[in-house]
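Please, structure for the following, as tokens.
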Amino acid sequence: MEHLQAYRAAGGGKHRANKPTEARARGRRLLIAAAVLFAAAIAHTESKAQAGPFAPMAGSWSGGGTVILDDGSTERIRCRAKYAPIGPTMEMSLTCASDAYKFNLGASVKAEGSAITGNWSEASRNISGSLQGRGGGGNFEVVASAAGFNANIALRTSGNKQTVTLRADSQFRGANISMTR
């Protein structure tokens, strides 16, 4: 407290403006304004990145359904999906499991108009191939192909609900999945 009294006494009892402190305050305000503008620019860029045919699917989903095996038996499965769209492209993963069955499907797709093309892989069976089909707005019908394997996949997205239907010509006959965000 004594140093404050001495400071005021040296200034004739008046508090003088400290020019370096004012400059720092102006610099902080400018820095804050620049940060706000930068954040707004990033938000605008991210919203543009989310525009495109895959935008309604963006995010993490979970739910369940049934898997149909080659002998016609069915098993209940729990599933998680992640979709990461960037403009006309998307990276996705779908993992489903029951007590005795599991699959890990990953794909990288691109839309050109309503045409969809891409690549897919199923990690637990070490199989991969190509995708092609049609769709937009979160609703797609594609065919996944590999040597000795073909599957029809339909994805339907409406708000926070999604259905995935897979039909295949192998030991895995298909799956019916319903998920929410």
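The CA atoms of residues 114 and 135 lie 5 Å apart. Confidence is low (pLDDT under 50) at residues 25-49.
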